[in-house]
Design a protein that fits this description.
The structure holds two protein chains of two kinds. By secondary structure, chain A is an alpha+beta fold. Chain A has nine helices and seven strands, in the order ααααβαββαββααββα. In chain B, helix 3 crosses helix 5. Classes of the chains: A alpha+beta, B alpha/beta.
Chain lengths: 322, 480
């Protein structure tokens, strides 16, 4: 937003300066010629030239106003959007607080119960049940107890591993998981919690579950000078072009309304998790960020996430805003 | 960390009412060779032209080294370090290599001599560092196509290009030339530049690229990193919902022993007693050892060659080679060069298909339009081309339909021998199948074909017999 406002301001400044300098150049040239012509002539000559000058100036002003109309409109739109953002963010925060209050009791009961099951499983030497229960408990702790928080990429990846561990028990030898992190430093990068796991869940649910044979989920991450790029790909069933187009238009449509909840009636298979993640990313980082989906039927799906690198102050201010 | 040299976001482009590019997003990183492939008509060349400023885009954003830029100006884009190498590079053919390289130098110093001494030294240094052996004082008109491309690439490197866009230039390359190009691009990458390598041949695009973008219907529908390259996956990403077309196999064993075309003791400035034959239903290829493509054979059958001796017979009738192409067509020859040059772009698909056979479709002075329509309808039905495309100007139809028109007009003309010059240049797997299908149809009809191509592998795949020439004589003949 700040960048948009800056761009608009620059654009207005540049256009005004260009017009004014042209105007100045024209005026000085015009009056030089007028003085030269009028030096030995009656004064009404000069008055006539002055009249012509005034008419030309009116045209100049009109064209300048016309040229400035678009950047000023853009600037006004941006200002409107910023104030709307603030208002909606406030709304979201209130909603989140209510939600947190509502779910305060249940999670603790759930964690305690899961820990008890784990204890019984260990006593009965049921190692698999103990491991599964521990993973489930950690998964719930991560996803339920930290709503709206930021997490590091490492935490996100650990959560994915935890989720896959549970899935390994459901579908043994079904999913192969590969991680390719080009730069270890990016593991400390802060991002909205539960960005990656829903996409992986989606990949298993829609891509690999129905696939005959073993599938693979691959997460590749690297940083550029301005962004962190994440590729989450699976070699599952993929999507037909029609379905892909439908999902893309949904993302585009829902992305315009980043504060609303996903459309009601979103049934299984309609990519609701992807829409949700996309909306959250757009809310945090702006509409130019979000998910990019590529898919080919019988080959698989690849989701690209583009997260802007933020310096500490930006991150702190974001945290404060939350 | 990867530094982003170029980024385009959601680029869209409409040409002649067709959405050629739609929501295309792409990044090229520093010291990266990014490959780009897709079926013919998927928008590869259009995005290449937009990135280099030859075309403007209708929508989308464009960033060069993280700064917002605008498309549509070659000069502005090249000033920011992006250079486009097209199949026909922009070089002054009457100037020498070094003059061509130095001519567009930004902030050119005025000196008594051109190129200035410092410029010459810089060129020599560039040649040395890239291990290119070239006489820089040779004029460009003496160079082969491959060498011209080298000069254009060298010029971009000399101008400190950050990104060089190689736009489908290797169609007419031999395997050896392609290898040399690959080595050169790897060296350029090592010295800091990035390459966007646009190519329709899958085998070539995967050979030295670091990452591959696959276009489908004007969108980037697939990204593969080098470790994930797989030819089948790439092909499937190219075709999308459709299944990968099975390669059409050539029909073997259809050729009879009856000679259709025979050349006996041909003597001219180029040939010294050349003899060969083409049987009914046989596809014959020619390879000339010293040349990339056997142009002399092409000139011979185009009626552009003065013969001092020898005879050519088609179906037993002696041909008057000097009579020119029109007489050759009347005698039963058909010619197909690069398919885009073998059609009349403003005429409809129907007119392009029947243009060679108007003689048979004309009664007295009028064209028998019902018959013409029926013939074309029948052909299009056989080739699964929608009938509604029949009346469209051929320039507005797909490349596949243009290729069909270029080839099948000779079937409708009932030509006995079709001379195909580098017909697979710039074709994708679907168009490759169309060519094989066409050759099979020629075999079935007991017609013959003469095939010329710089790609020896392709010739061996498609032909039934290959003649190898050296110094105007057949030195070997291989039956495949």
């Amino acid at each position: 937003m700040k960048q948009d406002l800056k761009n608009d301001r620059e654009s207005i400044k540049n256009k005004s300066m260009a017009s004014l300098s042209k105007n100045l150049l024209f005026s000085s040239g015009y009056f030089c010629i007028v003085f030269y012509i009028c030096k030995d002539r009656p004064v009404w000559y000069f008055v006539a030239f002055l009249l012509v000058y005034n008419i030309v100036e009116c045209f100049f002003c009109a064209s300048l106003l016309k040229r400035l109309q678009n950047p000023i409109d853009d600037m006004l739109d941006t200002v409107k959007k910023v104030s709307q953002d603030k208002y909606e963010a406030q709304n979201l925060r209130s909603q989140a607080e209510i939600f947190a209050l509502q779910s305060q009791i249940n999670p603790h009961f759930l964690y305690n119960t899961l820990d008890t099951i784990r204890g019984y499983a260990m006593q009965s030497d049921a190692k698999d049940i103990a491991v599964m229960t521990e993973s489930l408990s950690t998964l719930f702790r991560y996803s339920i107890s930290r709503p709206g928080e930021m997490a590091t990429l490492k935490e996100e990846l650990d959560n994915v591993k935890n989720y896959l561990l549970i899935q390994q028990y459901r579908f043994p030898d079904k999913v192969n998981y590969v991680e390719e992190i080009e730069d270890e430093n990016i593991l400390n990068y802060q991002m909205p919690i539960l960005t990656i796991q829903p996409i992986v869940e989606n990949a298993i649910h829609h891509g690999l579950e129905m696939k005959i044979g073993k599938g693979c989920i691959k997460i590749k991450a690297f940083r550029t000078d301005s962004d962190i790029i994440l590729f989450i790909s699976d070699d599952g069933l993929g999507m037909s072009e029609e379905k892909l187009e439908e999902l893309r238009s949904k993302l585009e449509k829902e992305g315009d309304d980043i504060y609303g909840s996903p459309s009601p009636g979103g049934k299984k298979g309609s990519g609701i998790a992807l829409i949700n993640v996309d909306k959250r990313l757009k809310f945090y980082y702006g509409s130019q960020h979000g998910l990019k989906i590529r898919s080919t039927l019988d080959i698989g799906t690849m989701i690209e996430i583009n997260l802007p690198l933020m310096n500490n102050s930006e991150y702190e201010s974001r945290k404060e805003a939350e | 960390m990867r530094n982003e040299i170029l980024k385009v976001v959601n680029v869209g482009k409409v040409i002649n009412g067709t959405q050629v590019l739609k929501g295309l997003t792409l990044s090229v990183y520093e010291q990266e060779i990014l490959g780009m492939t897709g079926l013919s008509g998927s928008g590869k060349s259009v995005i290449g032209e937009i990135l280099s400023g030859i075309r403007s885009c209708d929508e989308g954003q464009f960033f060069i080294a993280a700064k917002k830029s605008e498309s549509g100006s070659v000069r502005r884009i090249s000033e920011r370090g992006i250079y486009h190498i097209s199949k026909n590079p922009c070089l002054f053919s009457c100037l020498t290599i070094e003059e061509n390289i130095c001519l567009i130098e930004h902030g050119l110093r005025t000196d008594l001599y051109f190129p200035a001494k410092i410029q010459k030294l810089t060129i020599q240094e560039a040649l040395r560092s890239l291990d290119i052996h070239m006489n820089v004082r040779a004029t460009v008109n003496q160079l082969s196509l491959y060498e011209k491309h080298m000069v254009a690439i060298l010029r971009a490197y000399y101008q400190h290009a950050k990104l060089i866009i190689i736009d489908n230039i290797t169609n007419d390359y031999t395997e050896e030339e392609f290898k040399r190009l690959g080595n050169l691009l790897l060296k350029i990458r090592k010295r800091g530049a990035s390459i966007l390598f646009i190519e329709s041949m899958i085998d070539r695009v995967v050979s030295f690229t670091d990452r591959l973008v696959i276009l489908r219907n004007g969108r980037d529908e697939g990204i593969l990193f080098r470790n994930d390259y797989n030819k089948n996956i790439i092909m499937k990403m190219m075709v999308g919902d459709y299944s990968i077309p099975d390669p059409v196999e050539k029909n073997a064993g259809n050729s009879s022993n009856h000679v259709l075309l025979s050349a006996l003791d041909i003597c001219s400035r180029r040939f010294h007693g050349l003899s060969f034959s083409v049987n009914h239903g046989e596809i014959v290829g020619f390879i000339e050892e010293e040349k990339i493509i056997c142009t002399d054979i092409l000139n011979l059958f185009s009626g552009n060659m003065e013969l001092s001796g020898g005879t050519i017979r088609i179906d037993g009738t002696e041909l008057n080679i000097k009579a020119g192409r029109e007489a050759m067509i009347k005698a039963g020859f058909g010619y197909v060069d690069y398919y885009k040059n073998s059609i009349f772009p403003k005429l409809s698909l129907k007119d392009n298909l029947t243009i060679t056979s108007l003689g048979r479709l004309t009664s007295r002075t009028a064209i028998r339009s019902k018959l013409e329509k029926a013939v074309v309808k029948d052909l299009l039905g056989r080739l699964a081309i929608p009938e509604e495309n029949m009346k469209k100007p051929i320039k507005d139809t797909s490349n596949k339909e243009q290729l069909i028109a270029a080839l099948y007009k000779w079937i409708l003309n009932r030509s006995k021998v079709v001379v195909l010059n580098n017909i697979l240049s710039g074709t994708d797997m679907i168009m490759h199948n169309i060519v094989v299908q066409f050759l099979n149809e020629l075999r079935e009809r007991e017609c013959g074909a003469i095939l010329l191509s710089p790609n020896t592998k392709e010739l061996y795949e498609l032909c039934d017999r290959i003649y190898i020439l050296r110094e105007g004589k057949v030195i070997d003949m291989r039956i495949i």
